[in-house]
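Summary of Year 1 activities. Much of the first year was spent building the evaluation harness for sequence design. The harness presents a backbone, in tokenized form, and records the residue chosen at every position. We chose the following record to illustrate the format because it has been used consistently in internal testing since the harness was completed.
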């Protein structure tokens, strides 16, 4: 953990270089990369709140994303794991729902899943329901993971799951949703199997699903 409030201060002060140096020095002194990423995410939440109240503008939202990308580039390669082989056959089709272009959180979860041995097909942002289904079929993936940070994206998330049902793939697919705007209520509404904001929990849920599946 970085010195109390320093990461937050760098983010809210839009001080990219300070954030980078702080994170680098914390990594050198052995800090946990995931806790550092979490601190950065919390700082981003505060940026969002200030945007909502009008204290920050879109320019700050954009700049904070650049700061986050810079620190993620330092931290994400450190999120490797030794427990790989077991899950490497498990395919995950992952994307941000149509209408939504937020991808920092998605990229983080994708990196962590790959580090844990999952084969992740990252479709990027603003992904149409038809594309999710097409890729799921082509990859014969067992898991569909969708990210949403803005409220309208919940609608297209629901449409994706409806299409999955129409295509007869629903019962063989574990649908996991996440991202700031998702909740347990949203999960029930869109018809997903699980919802979480925590990447480690996401991996645990996917493992649990894979282990509980009937064998080939
Ligand atoms: C950075 C940011 C942007 C950047 C995004 C850059 C990028 N490449 O992603 C830019 C500037 C582009 C942007 C644009 C907009 N944004 Co914005 N943005 C944010 C901000 C400040 C931070 C988001 C972020 O990256 N956080 C850091 C990451 C690491 O956290 P995270 O995404 O939550 O991910 C974590 C978990 O949720 C989880 N996770 C994420 N996805 C998934 C998926 C699965 C399956 C799982 C298991 C887990 C998981 O993993 C991460 C683990 O730590 C948020 C504030 C907030 N509270 O989230 C607003 C926020 C999301 N934005 C908002 C808005 C309104 C917009 C705009 C509409 C603004 C505008 N007027 O144009 C546009 C939307 C454009 C669009 N069509 O999508 C609102 C949304 C409100 C709502 N409920 O609809 C927010 C909440 C700000 C606010 N409080 O008003 N934004």
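For this record, the design step produced the sequence shown next.
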């Amino acid at each position: 953990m970085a010195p109390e409030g320093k990461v937050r201060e760098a983010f809210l002060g839009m001080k990219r270089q300070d954030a980078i140096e702080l994170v680098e020095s914390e990594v050198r002194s052995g800090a946990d990369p995931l806790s550092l990423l979490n601190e950065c995410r919390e700082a981003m939440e505060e940026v969002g709140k200030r945007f909502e109240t009008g204290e920050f503008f879109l320019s700050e939202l954009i700049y904070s994303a650049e700061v986050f990308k810079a620190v993620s580039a330092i931290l994400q390669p450190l999120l490797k794991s030794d427990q790989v082989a077991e899950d490497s056959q498990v395919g995950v089709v992952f994307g941000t729902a149509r209408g939504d272009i937020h991808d920092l959180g998605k990229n983080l979860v994708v990196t962590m899943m790959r580090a844990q041995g999952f084969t992740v097909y990252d479709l990027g942002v603003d992904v149409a329901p038809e594309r999710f289904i097409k890729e799921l079929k082509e990859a014969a993936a067992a898991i569909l993971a969708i990210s949403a940070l803005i409220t309208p994206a919940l609608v297209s998330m629901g449409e994706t799951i409806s299409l999955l049902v129409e295509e007869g793939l629903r019962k063989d697919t574990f649908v996991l949703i996440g991202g700031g705007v998702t909740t347990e209520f949203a999960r029930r509404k869109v018809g997903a199997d699980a919802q979480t904001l925590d990447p480690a929990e996401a991996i645990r849920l996917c493992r649990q699903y894979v282990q509980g599946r009937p064998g080939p």
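The chain has two domains: 6-78, 85-212. Quantitative recovery figures across the full test set are reported in Table 2.
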